[in-house]
Structure formats: structure tokens, C-alpha cells
Amino acid sequence: MDKIKLNNVGRKFLSFIESDDFGNDQNVLRGMNSKKGDFWALRNIYMTIGQAEVVGIIGRNGSGKSTLLNIISKGLPVSEGEIIINGKVSALLSLGIGFQDEFTGKENIYLNASLLGLTRKEIDESFLSILEFSELGDFINAPLGSYSAGMKMRLGFSTAIHKDFDILVTDEIISVGDMHFQKKCFEKMIDFKREGKTIVVASQDMGFIARFCDRAYLLEDGRISFHGDPKEAVEKYEAILNKKKVLSEGSRVYMVTETKRLATDMAEWGQREGTKEVIIKNIQAFNKWGFKTDRIKSGQPLIVKVNFTANEEIDNFHFGVAIFREDGVYCYGPNTKFDGLAIDKIGKGDGHFEIECKEVLLMPGTYYLAVAIWDENETFAYDYHKCRYKIEIEGKPFFGQLLLLPSRWSSENLSLGPGDLDGYAQPNLDYLVDKYGTELKNDCASINSIKCLDNYGGEDSIFVTGKETKIKVDFQVAGLPIKDLLFWVGIYRSDGIYCHGRVKPITADGSNTEILVYPKIRLLPGGYKISAAIWNDRAKRFIAYTHGLNAFNIISDKQDHGTIYLEHRWKWNIPKGGLTKK
Amino acid sequence: MQDLIQYKRLVWELALRDIKLRYRKPFLGFLWMLIIPFCTAIVYKILFSDFFRTSSGTIPFFIHILTAMLPWAYFTSSIQSASQSILSNRNIINQISFPRYLLPLGAVLSNLINFLPTILVLILFLLVFKIKLSGLIVLLPVVILIQTFLIVGLSFLVSGLQVIYRDVEYIIQVVLMVSFFLTPGVYTLEDLVNKSSPFFVKMYMLNPLVGILNLYRIVFIGGYLSYLPRQANLFNTLINPVLWAIAVLFIGYFVFKHCEKRFADYINV
To answer: What's the total number of domains in chain A?
Structure first.
């Protein structure tokens, strides 16, 4: 029977970040001004631990080890997912919980033990044994304040191990104290292992993990990035440590500069291929209320669920989903490998995986979904359905634009774009189709300069997915009826696909400056071009433009394919062909 | 409630720890738990009775103030220590799993333990002042129970909220100060009824602490029932406090359970 089972567990914390805008003294006087946001310390954790298994948890500081142990010991509730524990848990996470310096060692044993859940009778019975293990002797009746740090620790450990348990959850604490006591603690752990207790232990002592554990999980940024043989896990962990070192020296070294964004061969759409060890049975799409549908509104959540049957056990695989516009433009293609998720091997049987996009920031239109279960390196697919599933995104379309990027004019509030422009006339972008790479200017109207600015206001041409990006355009109009004039800025992919644009009425004669702000630009890596134009709505023509002459690049730590990064998360439930125990 | 039986040992240890921490070191030890309320009562007696000439009817002022002072001290110190009970035990909370409501419960229990010996001394004073003890004194445990239920409910409420909204402790200070003067502690109920509008008296009587204070005097002082003005009827002396205690207990528990989910986010910052 599984002793511990974690099913898509996640834990988020509020992050309080004090703003830097004002001096600290002022903050104190004004009270609450910390900004709150969610921070996921753990996400998508699937774990199954059986009877008498010894499982190691490794990872860098802040990778979520302690949060995970706290969740297993039920000291911390989960924010999502479920956790099933069969048996009594003893958590040795910090020693001497509730110790009072004013109390004697004996009083502290009683207090500490009752906090740990022992009854009076149990404490009475094991008191002598605790005293003996702690080797404190007569000091037991001295106030704790007079103890050395090592003595306090010994007292805490001795008390904690006298609780009867089936599952022990512990971290570094066993590696403190003098050599003699360390050895004693280690022997006690060996005893527990021999008695068939289940042990979950987090440690930075790689030798200990490799020797003592049956299996190990490697955590990276709150996710399981590897699980399996402890020696292998230790190797992977050491590799991460080295990689992070390089990253911190030159932060752009590991950034992706170009992603796959071209359509697959559209002639193959609707087909499937694969080696068929695993067969995708069907694909279902759900809207935000969980209703099955193939129509959603632009900007709304979408959940895609894929049911599959495994005819054979497979290892080393990943799940992928991609969405294409009907003309073959690759919009977005995430997979579990890019997201760094390690998934148990698939045993024979039925299972499913699903991906939830928080906001589908695509313009209304017809789109097609491709889903696949790939091998480790995407060299072959177990099963690959090429654009066999149609999704309609509803809403008001806007001139062949692909994306809805949250943006604003520097003078306005944030919005998704076209939806708010209903009041304005729209320039007809068809006029620009064959003008790519050209400009038009005259004395009455001209676009003078286009600059890209980073969040500090400096000019730059390289931006990072998810960071602020501004486009500043200087232009001038002279002697024209300005109420008929509209100003437009658009972003094109370097291959000429129109991604996103915004329109604004021109309000002043003469020189104008407009700044279009993307607070978190969602574009994926690659080259992009900027166009700007002035549209005369009465004459229904452009009177000045510069089309595709200015460029910027996006780089990212995301490897996902396509054009736009959509926030998403994965869930899965895969058949187990028995427990993966070595 | 099942886990309350399972964890009764822990509540007891927590309460005992509070008591021990408070009285272990001082030379006078637990005598302080008697000295402080009686000193306060003496100060109030001098200030209000001898100085401001506040009337206390036929009962000696010292007894009048003492019968209010002791339950009141139990009430305020419980609420105040309960409001800090979660935050001051943050090192315990994140480490082990046990029902969190045991912490405010332990805080109340330690104050109850503090309160009981003072009652014995009060009875001693009643004898010294040659006041006829009421036969109703056998009902004293019931009165204490009603008050304790009310305190426990309020403790759940404030201890949970305090973790998330740190303004609560200051609000408590203000509310406790105001409500002391909204109970017949220094003045008599009769004075208040004579000098106030009937509507205000009606509202005043809805305060459960007024009822509880009356109950304490009824069970201690022989014949006190006849001193009570007719506005203090059975409903607002007995039934109203009981209803309040039950309602507050449920609301407090509910609010606490709600706040509890968010403790981990707020407790360490």
C-alpha cells in the first residue's frame, strides 16, 4: 500500500515586497503598503512512496524542499492538489519545538513530547529511555537556558525519536552535533530503515543520499525535475549546480534567441503518425466552467484534455500540445520537457494529461490543435495527431491580427487592445500589404522616428519575454483636419505575420510623441518588425507610414515554440505498471 | 471537537507552560496573581469612592468593585493573551500538525487557572466585611462556565484575525477600555438606570458582560437580587449572555478556521 501519495500538489505563498518608492520611515508611518502577489513554492508535484521506502529529496536552497517536507508532515496545508498519507507521521524538521529556556530539561521533555502528540502515559514510559539516549545525566533537572547548543539538540532529538510512527519526515538536523552523537543518530536511522519504516529525508549531504536512500527526487524551482536512482539524481543535481554558476556569470548565456515558429506542412494536417506504443484516444477542450466545448471567447481560459491508452510501458517521453491558426501560423507549442517536468514512466493502461491556459490571448478565428506524446528528444512520436482538432475562438476580429497582447498607450490604462477600440474608426491595413519594407512621408505628415525602450527608458533592441517593452514613436502632422486622423502602431513577425497593433486618435497638430507600453511582452524569441502609420479616415488611405523598417528581437528562457507565450500548467494522471521501486 | 479530547493533554501543557513562565522567576511567585487585582481594587476604591464619592448602595464599595474587578481581569487578560497566542507560538505552528485552535484555548485556560484562586480570596473578603454569602454560590461554576464560553469564542475570533490584521490588538485595547465603562463596575446599575434614557438602558442591557457581572454579584452577595433594578430581568441577566456565548463561540470558531488557512502566509512576516 502507498504510504504517501501526492497528486498534483502545489503550495503558493503570498509574497510581500515592500516598494522602494518611499523611504522606510514613511512606510512605517503609513503602515501596510507591501505589494502582494502569489509565489508558487511548489507546483505539479506527483509523488508515490510505498511502505519501507527510504526516499531522498535534493535540490538547491529555495527549491521547495522544506515546503515539501512541511506539506507531507501536514504542518502546512496545500494550496491545490491532494495528499494522501496512510500511517502516523513523525516530523523531525526542527528539534526542540516549543522549548522554553526557563524550564528544566525534564519539563521540556514533557512539553515537547505533548506537542509532538505523545500522551502522558507514553512520556512517563519512555522518559528514562529518552534520558539515556540524550546522555544528559543530572543536567536533566537544570534549566534549559544553561545548556549548550549541542545539549539542547540532543534533548530534542532524543524526545522526537521516541514517538511511535510509520513515516519519518526529516531534513538536515541529523547532521549536527558531535561525531559521536551524529553516528548514534545515523545508527538510529538505519534501525528505522530495518524496522520497515518509511523515511523521507532532505539533505545536502550527497554521500548520505546516495548510500542511504532507495530513490531520490530532485527539486528545481518548486518542480520535480528528476526522480529515480539516487546516484543518478545526485549527478543531475551536481550538473544543475554547475549550470547555475554559468548562468549567474552572464545571465543571457542560456537564453533562447530563436524559436520554431513556422507551420508544419499543412498538407499533412488531419493525419497521425507514431510508433503506437501509446495511443491517443481522444482530445477534449473545456471552457473556464469545465464545460466541454470547441468554442471559447478570446482571452478566456481553455483546458485541453488528452486521453490515451498505453499498450506497453514507456519511459523517457514528454507530452506536447500546439495550436495553429487555420492558415498555418504557429501560435503556441508548449511541452512538458520545455517546462522541465519529470514524469513517472507510463505503465500499461489508460491515462490522461491536460493543459490549462489561463488566458488564450489569440484573436478570434479558427484554430487547430495538434497533440503528441514524444520520445525524450522529439526524434519520433509515440502518437502524434497533426491538427486534427478544431477550436473556434469567438469575438470581434481585427484586420488579420494574430494576438491580443495586454498593452496600453503611456497615457491610458492597460487593456487587451482592439476590444476597447470599438469607438474608433479602424485603418484598413489591406493597403499596406504590398508595402512591406517601405515608407511614405510628405510635408503634411511623417513618421520621424521609432525607438524601442526598456523599462528604464534606455534604447534597446533586445527584450526578454515577460519583461516590459515600450515603443516610442515621434511623428508630425501639419495643416490637416486632425479629427479625421488616426495613429497606428503594429508589430509584425520578421516573416511578415501581423501580430498585434493599436490605434489612437491624433489629438494635436504639429509634433507628437506616442509611447506604446507592453508591461509584460508575451512574444516568444525571434525577430520582430515595427510599423507605424497615420490614417486619414475621411480619405480612407494612409498619408504616412513606415512599414517594417524598424526591428527588435525577443529572447527568452522559455523554449516553447510559436509566437506568443501563454501562461499554462500541466496536470496528468498516468497508469502505473506497479511501483517504480529499484 | 473529537480532537479536543485527544489533545486535552496538550491544552493542559500549554496552559501550564504559560502559568509557569509567569510565576516561576519572581520571588513572590504566584502570589502576584492575587496581589495585582486586589491592588487595582484598592486604587479604584480610593479613587471612586473616597475621592469622587461614587455610591455603591448598601454594599461596601470595596466589595462592589472587587466582585467586578476579578471577572473583568479574567476577561481582559484572556482576550489579550489569546490575541497573541498564535503569533507568539509561530515556531511551533509551522513545524508540527495539531489543531491550531488549541493555542488560544490554552491561553484562556491558563487565565482561568489564574482566576480561580482569586475567587477564594474574594470569599474571604466577603466574610471579613461580614456580608451574608448568597446560597446561590453553588451556581458559581455555571456563571464561570458562561463567561468562559464567551471568552473562548472571542479568543478564537481575535487570535485568528490578529495573524492577518495586526491592527486587531490595538482595536482590542480600545474596545476593552470602552466596555469596562459600559459595565456596572465602578458605578451601580441603579445609578445608571436612574440617570439614563430608557432606550440607552435597553441597549446597555444587551451587553453580555452586564448580565455576567450581575450574575457574579447575585451568586456572591446575599440578597443582591433585591438590589437589582427591574430593568435587569431574567432575559438580559441570564439568557442574553448565554445566547451571546453560544453565538460568539460558533462565529469565532468559524472565523478562526477561515483565517487558519492563511496563517502560513502571514505568520512569519
So the answer is: 3
Which of B3, B5, B6, B9 best probes binding to A when mutated, by most A CB atoms within 10 angstroms?
B9
Both A354 and A278 in one domain: the answer is yes
The b-or-e profile of A11-39 (16+ CB within 10 A means b, else e) is bbbeeeeeeeeeeeeeeeeeeeeeeeeee
Three-class secondary structure of residue A352 per DSSP: strand
Q: Which of residues 308-337 of A touch B (CB under 8 A)?
A: none
Domain of residue B234: give its range: 2-266
Determine the Cα–Cα distance for residues A254 and A558; give it in Å rounded to an integer. Answer: 10
CATH number at residue A318: 2.70.50.60
Mean pLDDT of A291-303: 89
Residues of chain B below pLDDT 50: none
pLDDT of A460: 83
Question: Is A424 in the same domain as A534?
Answer: yes
Mean pLDDT of A218-242: 86
What are the chain A neighbours of B13 within 8 Å (beta carbons)?
Answer: 110-111, 114-115
> What ipTM was predicted for this assembly?
0.78
Residue numbers of the domain that contains A464:
408-556
Q: Is B261 in the A-facing interface, judged by CB distances under 8 Å? A: yes
Which of A216, A249, A282 is at the close of a domain? A249
Mutate to test the interface with B, among A111, A121, A152 (most CBs of B within 10 A): A111
Looking at the complex, does the CB of residue A13 fall below 8 Å from at least one CB of chain B? yes
Domain assignment present for residue A582? The answer is no
Q: Quick check: B94 and A75 CB within 8 A? A: yes
Q: How far is the alpha carbon of B232 from chain A, nearest alpha carbon, in Å?
A: 44
Which candidate, A482, A522, A487, A492, places its Cα nearest to that of A502? A487
Q: Give the span between the Cα atoms of B237 and B242, in whole angstroms.
A: 9
Taking CA–CA distances from B260, the nearest residue in chain A reads A77
Q: Are residues A116 and A240 in the same domain?
A: yes
Eight-class DSSP state of B45: I
Q: State whether A233 and A112 are in the same domain.
A: yes
What is the DSSP secondary-structure string of B101-142?
THHHHHHHHHHHHHHHHHHHHHHHHHHHTTPPBPGGGGGHHH
A280 with A369, same domain: the answer is: yes
CB atoms B9 and A119 under 8 Å: yes
CA distance B206 to A457: 63
Chain A residues within 8 A of B95 when measuring between CB atoms? 70, 75, 91, 93-94, 97
Q: What is the pLDDT of residue A315?
A: 82
Residues A244 and A376 in one domain: no
| pLDDT tens by residue, A137-152 | 888 888 888 888 888 8
Same domain, residue pair A211 and A173: yes
Which residues 91-110 of chain A have a CB within 8 Å of chain B? 91, 93-94, 97-98, 100, 102-103, 107, 110
Q: Do A110 and B91 touch (CB under 8 A)?
A: no
Residues A440 and A380 in one domain: no
Whichever domain contains A170, its CATH number is 3.40.50.300
pLDDT value, residue A257 = 72
